[in-house]
Amino acid sequence: MSIRVVVAGDHQLVLEAFAETLNGTDGLEVVGLATTFEAVLPTVERCRPTVLLLGESTMGGKALRIATDVRSHHPGCGVALMVGTATPAVVDRAVAAGALGIVPKNGRLPQLITTLIGVAGGCLTVDPALIRPPVTGDTSLSIRELDVLRLTAGGATVKEIAGELYLASGTVRNLTSAAIKKLGGRNRFDAARIAVEQGWL
Questions:
Q1: Which of the chain's termini has less CB crowding within 10 Å, N or C?
Q2: pLDDT confidence of 149, banded at 50, 70, 90?
């Protein structure tokens, strides 16, 4: 039985070429393509894939949010993420968002195929060297807290962060306060600096 794959990315031509390559591989069948953030969930709903393959830069950097949404609405669909650079911090964020497979964009086709097969089987398929022990206790940051700190590190205001993450400004302030407390920062910018130094952003 073929592994049904939906591929999501920003460029139709690239996706079509990618689909052609994967369709030439025994055991894989690309059943759908999505080139916009809004199209991913409907495409997964319509095509019922075994695996969703996402580009890290998909839909303006919303790949992790897409991964979380897909896993929430369609838990039977595994998520694999193609990333520019695979680092422990990137893997941590991807796994926390629900991805089971992470493959670098400079990887080779056999690595991608192995990842898709592993994800289809419900296995975490990542280079073991990139998996860190989970952070425990009060210092662990949620995905939303990391999102807020990442945007803070880029110089965004609370209002801009709220708009980017589709949150109320009060929610952003609460997330910021929680992150500052967990990291022992003096303010939100100091907390962002600490998170960067820890390799979490």
A1: N
A2: very high
Question: What are the respective helix, strand and coil percentages of the chain, to the nearest 5?
Answer: 55, 15, 30
Residues for the chain: how many in total?
A: 201
Q: Do residues 100 and 80 lie in contact, with contact meaning Cβ atoms separated by under 8 Å?
A: yes
Residues 99-127 pLDDT 10s: 889 988 888 889 999 999 999 988 888 87
Domain ranges of the chain: 3-130, 137-197
CATH assignment of 3-130?
A: 3.40.50.2300
Q: Write down the CATH number for the domain with range 137-197.
A: 1.10.10.10
- 9 to 19, 38, 183, 187: CA distances (angstroms): 11, 12, 34, 36
CA distances from 101 to 16, 141, 145 (A): 21, 21, 23
CB atoms < 10 A from the CB of 168, how many? 10
Contacts of 63 (CB under 8 A, 6+ apart): 54, 55, 56, 57, 81
Convert the pLDDT of each residue in 37-71 to its tens digit.
889 999 999 999 999 999 866 555 688 888 888 98
Residue 149 to residue 146: CA distance in whole angstroms: 5
First to last CA, the chain: 39
Beta bridge partners, 8, equal: 34, 54
Question: How many Cβ atoms are within 10 Å of 46's Cβ, its own excluded?
Answer: 12
| Nearest by Cα to 57 from 18, 105, 23 | 105
